[in-house]
Amino acid sequence: MEPTADDGGRAPRGVISPSRNDPLVHTLSEAVGGPIGNHAAPGLIRSGWWTVELVLIILTVIAAIGGVLIKGYCQAVGWNPPTEFYATCYSDFPTLFKERGLADGVLPLFSHSALFEYPVITSLIAGFTALLVPGVGATDARATTYFDINAILVAVMWLITVIATARSNPRRPWDAAFVALAPGIILSGFINWDMWAVALLALGLLAFSRNHPALAGAAIGLGTATKFYPVLVLGVFVLLALRTGRWRQTLVTIGSAVIAWFVVDFPAAIANPRDWSFFFAYSTDRDPSFSSAYYSWNLLADRMHLAKLSAATTNTIFVVAFGLCCLAIAFIALHAPRRPRVAQLAFLVVAAFILTGKVYSPQYVVWLIPLFALARPRWRDFLVWMAGEALHWVAVWMYIGWTTSNGPVQNNIDTPYYVLAVVVHMITLLYVCLHVVADIYDPATDPIRRSREDDPQGGAFDGAPDRWTLASLWKPRQPAESSAP
Q: pTM score, two decimals?
């Protein structure tokens, strides 16, 4: 075996082993011989074909197979309510295929016979994959084939996300195992097309970490044209540029993101403005939906004969609540004694968007998992969070099964228990957020900075000194020294 060459011509640095670095993995490793030895040098010694990335790919493939097997009941008997909910095998793929005209050849943004409530790239994926399904009509067999096609593509996006996450920090590639083995992705990754946006954002962060701002912006812009949330990360770059004074990379990233989004959305907006704008109108006009705090309030208010929240009221509360969260994150970014990392702020802003949003679909958890792997790679906290998400995942299907079957409550999950599961999901996510904030204010607890790294995803921000902080505004000016003898 030979030492590997370092790309930058500097002294090579070894890969950090989870069995040394993570307390839970360190303890569990005792069952298989204990932590890796002190004289081992992973990343410095060639390991042949058995690389970290190969192991991650194998783990992801196994997890993806598990995620598809969860849908096995529906694949066997059909995708029909309420059994698809009680069997916890529901997916938007076959439902939209049958209910939005995709089975009949409707192509979102091109056909004018049906509206589709998704951004441009997601709409195109949904439409063009439907053209690959043989046969005619909205049959269960064709719906299952449609699911299979999209599940394969989602699995590919999952693999891309894992590899991009691993390469975003060459010293800690094993952190991508959080993404490869995530229970949240296994359970919810095959519900919708969210993994496409997740993969694009992961590629954007990888490009940003390697100081390729134009590529980073292009990936984020395309991600925004797939699902809205990747655009939130651009605000993180602005905050860190404000603190460090390093604006070039941020401005190039934002500019290329706008161009990429414009290239995709502008033709659709010109050719079919009604269909293109439907996503924005639907998001604004829809009532509070499943698993949001507002929906939970309306359920309880209905039982207690209190005032329920309308769509307009919910929109106002969301704007105010999310705005306050963004102000709090901006305060943290500019006030913390040491500059926060890109992944830490990105996790916080996306989590705030989810917690204050009008709907929390079970698949939204996949937005956060790669960011968690980069922000706070600790297995104990991850498993606590995933336990809360798994509880919610079961509860939401049981609750929807009840509401669609109109069965007796004795044989279903009643409203208070469903609301409790929503509260647990929110508490466990807040638990992770508080740990991330604690790491920002005390870098000694941050797993990344304890590894003697500054900001692996930071690009130009990595190692940059502060130019301006809120703390500097509050420091009293030192009196000028007199030059008199």
A: 0.91
